[in-house]
Amino acid sequence: MAAMEWFTPWFPAPGYGLSRLVLQRALAGVYLVAFLSAALQFRALLGERGLMPAAAFTRRVPFRASPSLFHWRCGDRFTGACAWAGVALAAAVVGGAADAVPLWAAMVMWALLWFLYLSFVNVGQVFYGFGWESLLLESGFLAIFLGNAQTSPPVLTLWLMRWLLFRVEFGAGLIKWRGDACWRNLTCLYYHHETQPMPGPLSWFFHHLPRRMHRMEVAANHVAQLIVPFGLFFPQPVATVAAGLIIVTQLWLVLSGNFSWLNWLTIVLALSAVDPSPATGASSYGHTPLWFAVMVCLATVLIVVLSWWPTRNLLSRTQQMNRSFNSLHLVNTYGAFGSVTRVRHEIVLEGTDEEQITPETAWHEYEFKGKPGNVRRLPRQFAPYHLRLDWQMWFAALSPAYTRGWFEPFVSRLLENDPATLRLLHINPFPQQPPTHVRALLYRYRFTTREQRRATGAWWHRSFEREFLPPVALTGRPGGRRRW
């Protein structure tokens, strides 16, 4: 006991008990949304008849390169059961289950959440190739060592979370400053609200703010991402103020667009720097077990060692965005919008039930849940939920290279009226019988002006650019060879 007391008096941070409570419950909530996304979308995207079957991926990629439970078994029933198990476990943690069990059991719960989600990410290919997937895994790994209500928050884990938040914010700031010139001349938001991957219900209004306001937004973003993060490592109350400024900035981003759980998870991480003890008083906890202190110290050493690669990347003139340096996604590099698209293009998919294609053929549009289509439809708020197919369609409109491996199977599933695929869409214009042909057209989309909005009721104006995919059909019975 004496040795244990000598080893751990510096270890606890009891004043952060409330911050840890909120942080853990909120992080479990993000896990819940992530697993729900897998439960509702994984089968259509990566299942046995998915657009990029995970089973085919596991056959060509070894376990050591992408550790995943699905190397053992990858059927639709099993992956679905794992996704719903993740939803149930995350919901239990949100409800306080991890605080009602012994410390070791709470760590097992967090470890199960982490490994289950790692299993989805490591076979998810392009549909899981986003920075916020790695951010959730890195945050979730640190949460294993955050303790529960039976012990004080470990000061080392709180510092590791601040280090993660610093890399998220500072990395994003550097990639902007080093990237597109519009970030340095403060003009990127002239375009960004209109051309971002998934506009939200307020994006039209943000786009029409005065240009002076847009320049102020960019300048404030530089301060929030390049200067404020250093305050996380200062004594209190400076760290709390820095965390508060980051939270305000992230809430502004939540209002202006849909970025899955990226902004919400950044807010969650900021709680690690918020010290509520002056208002709540320090909570009393039991003695920190020596085995737990040792595990936290070992995890800290691991994170410090692995931090070499993302730190070197931060300092590099050829900084990369959203890269994992190991297959466990433990210490990653982050960043977004090193370049800003000036023009918005959208791929519009259409089908017809006519046997012969003529200039008079009647075409009917498929409507996606989130991405712009119908010009009169106000963009919806989906974040923190992630519409994976909608995001890939945004990339596909940037370049046909982004369609490799999944777009052709997607069109084939539309020609078959595949139920799982159609559940990913908002409107299927062929509810009774599948279409005979499907085509894809490329349009340029612009937000309407205030005058156009009042006159037409439309949020978007679109103009035809070119044919993206000529009419295609299935020959023979569904699932037969495609005629392109």
Number of domains: 2
Class by alpha and beta content: alpha+beta
Strand coverage percent: 5-15%
Largest sheet: 5 strands, antiparallel
Compute the CA-based radius of gyration. 24 Å
Shape: globular
The total strand number stands at: 9
Q: Unreliable runs, pLDDT <50, ≥5 residues?
A: 477-484
Strand order of the largest sheet: 4-3-7-8-9
Distance between the termini: 75 Å
Written as H for each helix and E for each strand, in order along the chain, the element string is HHHHHHHHHHHHHHHHEEEEEHHHEEHEE
Number of continuous helical runs: 20
Which key phrases capture this entry?
five-stranded antiparallel sheet, 2 domains, 20 helices, alpha+beta, LMF1/2_C, LMF, disordered C terminus, 484 residues, transmembrane
